[in-house]
Design brief:
It contains two helices and twelve strands. With 197 residues, it is mainly β. A hairpin with a 2-residue loop joins strand 3 (48-56) and strand 4.
Length: 197
């Protein structure tokens, strides 16, 4: 009995300390309201898509589907969340206060599945949300099975000139999950986002 209790205590301690090493944001019915769908149609493009909230057993996930088209200088559909003076979702509140024991967050993990296409994360750290020069971008691949994709912040590049982005998590103002840059059909599911130390 003592061995079983010790094993249970060790297991709980391991889970608790692992959870302290990440900021985890699974998609839920409550927090999905902080996310919005955008496409290149806001600037004259012709890409079409949608975001749906779906469930597989206990897992809730968002699904970004559509057709990305580069006509009319377009080329994206995306799911995005942002912070502002009037609206600060929990993710941004926690990121702003994320320094812990002198450590900074090192990157982001997504639990994803897709149609084998390449997708992107777009992060902005400037308040000038509408300027394309403010985007920092990283790419990830998908497969038909759920998997965890880990992207260190040092892999992000500035969209403007492909230089290293040097992202500090507490400065993140927008976070987008994006089908981008070429003509293709998007089918990307994301169940959670984690930022890790």
């Amino acid at each position: 009995m003592k061995k079983l209790l010790l094993l249970m205590l060790l297991t709980f301690t391991t889970i608790a300390s692992a959870n302290e090493e990440v900021l985890s944001f699974p998609f839920t019915l409550d927090n999905v309201k902080d996310w919005k769908y955008f496409s290149d149609q806001v600037m004259g493009g012709v890409s079409e898509g949608q975001v749906s909230l779906e469930q597989d057993g206990d897992m809730v996930f968002t699904r970004l589907t559509g057709n990305v088209r580069t006509d009319n200088n377009g080329g994206f559909i995306q799911l995005r969340t942002s912070t502002s003076l009037s609206n600060k979702p929990l993710m941004f509140k926690l990121l702003q206060n994320s320094k812990k024991d002198g450590k900074k967050l090192q990157g982001v993990r997504l639990k994803v599945k897709g149609n084998g296409e390449k997708y992107h994360i777009f992060i902005q750290t400037t308040i000038f949300y509408r300027l394309p020069t403010g985007y920092n971008i990283a790419t990830f691949n998908t497969s038909l099975d759920w998997e965890t994709v880990e992207i260190p912040f040092n892999r992000f590049k500035k969209l403007k000139d492909n230089k290293d982005a040097n992202i500090n998590a507490k400065d993140i103002k927008t976070f987008g999950i994006v089908a981008y840059g070429r003509d293709f059909t998007s089918d990307l599911s994301v169940s959670s986002i984690e930022f890790y130390y």
